[in-house]
Amino acid sequence: MAEITDISNDFIRQEIEEYIERPEERERNINLFARARPKMQEIAAALIDGDNDTVNRLTREALDSGIEALEVMDDGLIAGMGIVGIKFRQNFIFVPEVLACARAMKAGMAHIEPILSAAGIEPVGKVIMGTVKGDLHDIGKNLCIMMLRGSGFEVIDLGVDTAPDRFIEAVEEHDALLLGMSALLSTTMPNMGKTIEAFIDADLRDKVKIMVGGAPVTQEFADDMGADGYGKDALACVATAKKLLGVVAKTRA
Ligand code: B12
Hints:
By secondary structure, this protein is of the alpha/beta class. The protein folds into 2 domains: 114 residues, Methionine synthase domain (Methyltransferase, Methionine Synthase (B12-binding Domains), Chain A, domain 1); 126 residues, Cobalamin-binding domain (Rossmann fold, 3-Layer(aba) Sandwich). 58% of the residues lie in helices and 9% in strands. It is built from 11 helices and 5 strands, in the order H-H-H-H-H-H-E-H-E-H-E-H-E-H-E-H. A 5-stranded parallel beta sheet has the order 2-1-3-4-5, with helices on both faces. Helix 9 links the parallel strand 3 and strand 4. Helix 1 runs antiparallel to helix 2 and helix 6 runs parallel beside helix 7. Cobalamin binds next to helix 5, helix 6, helix 7, strand 3 and strand 4.
């Protein structure tokens, strides 16, 4: 197990010391940052600081120096956002600060996206993705979309606050065989189940596979609501999409 002194970045060390109280979260973050390159720690620090311009510049520099996009995403951007999430939960920071961090995350992701999306040549399937009704969180959904596109999926992004009818319309309009829903709030998670019910009511449930995800969503919750698949992160989202589309034809007859 790593020690906090193994983390080279002063700012990150202080953030962990000062704000992360739960032992398992401290241990996870110490291990994560102790093995992350100094440049990744700098990116995370700038993101935690809500410093848009610095995240933008450092992400570009890291990619130009040959560091893999996935590493920059995981060890820099997502790792930084992890600390932001803990500070927000514990009321050390509030919505305006989190918004600044989210903007900084997007500035970094703007460099990552073209790289992750470039890989796909032949579309392997079409996916509709959206954040459910009442929910404005889109960072995780957007990461999933990048990874799906990078793996060759064609993705139609419905954005945030997506009503069940909108999901249905999109599935029909694009003749899609797979739908992915994201929810970050315990109050909006039930809207995933409501959307699934709307597909049943519209007599379309057996025409589309449905996968769900988002920080509060679990495999158990996904099973209970009748989803076909669940993914805990963007890599799992791709694996689930491949699995679900593997069992049905790629395009409807
Ligand atoms: C950033 C953020 C915001 C930003 C959102 C900006 C944006 N454009 O997204 C802003 C400031 C707007 C915001 C607002 C609010 N937020 Co907020 N927010 C967060 C925060 C800090 C980070 C979320 C995030 O981006 N995580 C990083 C991404 C990469 O992770 P992720 O979303 O989980 O996604 C990954 C996986 O879940 C998965 N995944 C995601 N979607 C999907 C979909 C599929 C199909 C699959 C397979 C996988 C998958 O893959 C992703 C990539 O690995 C979280 C804290 C946290 N720890 O989650 C709180 C959090 C989600 N927010 C919270 C709250 C309470 C709110 C507000 C109600 C606050 C308020 N008082 O106004 C509002 C609600 C606004 C609304 N109606 O939606 C709570 C929710 C508590 C709960 N259980 O309900 C949290 C948990 C913070 C806390 N208190 O602990 N928030």
